[in-house]
Amino acid sequence: MSESPSNSSIKKLLDYLEQTGLLEQLQLSDEDVADSIWLALQMGVEDLQLPPIFPENKQPIDSSTSNQIEENLEEIPEDNLSKSQPNVDIITEESLPKEIEKTTPIQDFPFQVPAAAALQTALFISRALRPFMGKVPSATKTILDEEATASFIAERDIWLPVTKPQPERWLTLELVVEESRSSFIWRELINELQNLLENQGAFKTVRVWQLSTSNNQELQLVRRRKKGKPGQRYHPHKELIHPRGRGLVLLVSDCVSPLWQKALIHPWLKDWSEKQPTAILQLFPERLWNSTQLGRGRKLFTTALTAGVPNPKLILKNYPQWLPINWQNTLLIPVITLETEVLKQWAKVVAGSGNAQISAFLFDLEFIKQQIIEISPISREENKQDSEDKNSIKNKAEAIVERFFATASEPAKKLAKMMAAAPVSMQVVNLIRKTLLNEVRPVHVAEFYMGGLLKPIVENEEGQYRVYDFLPGVRQVLNDAIGRRQTIKVLDAISQYIAGEIKSPIRSFVALLTLLPTFPPEQREKILPFAQVSIEVLRNLGGEYAEFAEEIAVNISNPPPIPQPSPPPLKTSIFDVATIEILETRTFEFTLATIERQYQNPFKREKWVIKKEKRRAEGIVEKLAEGVELELMEISGGTFMMGTEDEEIERLVKKFGWDGFRREKPPHRVTVSSFYMGRYPITQAQWQAIAATAKIDIDLRTNPSHFRGYKLPVEQVNWYQATEFCKRLSRETKREYRLPSEAEWEYACRGGTTTAFHFGETITADLANYRATETYADESTGEYRSKTTPVGYFQVANAFGLYDMHGNVWEWCADTWHNNYYGAPTDGSAWTENWNDNRSPLRGGSWCNNPNVCRSAYRSNLNRRDFNYYDLGFRVVWGAGGTL
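Structure (tokenized):
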């Protein structure tokens, strides 16, 4: 006796799990095993092109073969079909605005960003559909009836097999996807849903269709392939009706397109629903249903006592019995969402369990026909008149935003505000969802796109999507609503992604826009759409941001010629050293680490994840003594915002109860020239090599540190001793080494970032040495090491290749102390005017400090210049700036 290949494979799997002890060790239930098999099917297998097993025309055609024939038939050009229709392009209509402004220079965002997972609960959806898994005897397929065969042979002594109908799934699913102008919003969600339903196994077969309209407003139905690719042949809608009523039609729609506005879809729904179960999978949540065309119907609750009944035979739960229904002009259609409990109730109703109910809408078709309204496009003349009146534009924009905020969900509001800082593109939406707004789902994206804030700008050649922009004045209103800090976050997130795509170490929008004219022409063209929007946004922010926007606008209009790289200045004097020499210029490899929030699933909180990538950067090496080298990284010049925004300072003061954060104001733009900075803080080995040389101003102890070790950073060093070290190093090398200015230190620490740490929004004990028993954000606590660690201990650096910029030891700066940045230089030089020469700034925090003072922007003045403590160290710089 034989068994089906699938049953045999499952039996082998269970035997293997039992033999290896995994079944008992993992405590797997039958349901767990079934879910694991389903997950394996979801993952799929490699698509190999295998030769046919059977010779042509030698085997009967089964259902899978017939499906394959139908698939192949769909790919045959229309000209080759015996009864062909004219080859008409499939053109869809959208409920979004139709008027296209073709003269605007705004372009789409050219960098592709993979979409976040749209279907967050695939496994739970699969479980919810289990009521559909019932089986009935097949009308065409048979299997061996073992018991009847044995009885037949025993009774008659005739060895003939007795067969019986093969059990098979009782329903065929016809998944109909409406293609409209809003489809690009839902595409990833629908693709994932299609993949799930095709592989889930609840239905006998799953056929997927695409529904759209032609130019003359006629409905068109074609097969929908993987990833939304449409077939070429048109099908009659009644092809979806199963001859024995064992079909199920599920229309996926947001119910806002002209198909609904002009009642084009209702006759098809009526034809389907009168013969077999038919439902609408509404992509909007129930709270928004009345804002769609479903609002024209009457909401009811329905149930069923018999499996697979057509819609008119559903039992209406809350409909007045005395009120008659004219079914000839009435459409009853259940409406569901992708919520697992709703799907489970729907599956039970279709299965006729009797103990479940779902929402449905009752439509009076005569009434709907009377309500059809032709929507006239907005004229260009009206738009032109509005554009001439700035006050009118502002007032209208404020009204538009106010109306949107009154009805939109919180995630949709946040998304709209952040999108106001960027080009309006699904690529940017995907990026914001991944990096800044994990809670945003496709429905929130739809609220943003369809909330009346946007207008279409240009359509691509294939007509598959459009580029959108905000209505006049709306972007500025939203910029004002979000505030500077969040706007800068968005600009930086996009800049970092662009930098990654063009293989650049840039980490901030300031650096990206400043260096834009220096990029190759093909890269400039790609970045230009983002730059154009950034200029508008920065102008809206006002102040120094507006001034920066004007500079960038001039640079974009008149890009300077790309300078030819000059030979490294050190090469000409590579042997011009007496006691200490440059070994070489060197390309350093290092690991760049960033920490980001990662969304797991609805049942687990977000967690912080460290991401690492290999990078390279240029530097130089000095030989100080036998086996002792000083490595310095090249810090390319640029412009950045130094300090902290008022809004963030107030948040820090409130959270940590410390007014010292106010020393970081006001934020101001600083342009820093290129220089070299020590790859690590000065080590005890490096200190000893230089401290052993002749005195210049003061004596130096050769080993002042409290924690001893050649690779440990030198500590218990005051400002004057650090300065003496720089002077002696300069004398020995014939190059002017010095302490960094505060601006140079912060610029180098940030490495192009604008976050609290160069790692990201927070820090962990896996990345730096600090008092990790305290937290900065909502990260986990970590090990408090209570001492210094060897330089580079964590093996992670910032974008410039610098290590230990956060924690380990405080680092002295060249400036004299000032309580704030009012009047500070903007050229990156040390600030020594109007000074307090008893104190100098310390930066970076140390092994014994809480994380909030290890931030890139934090400034400490707790120690006088002559103070020694075992958390005070320094690193050196060479080039640019002034010397001591």
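The CA atoms of residues 755 and 761 lie 5 Å apart. The first strand starts at residue 135 and ends at 144.
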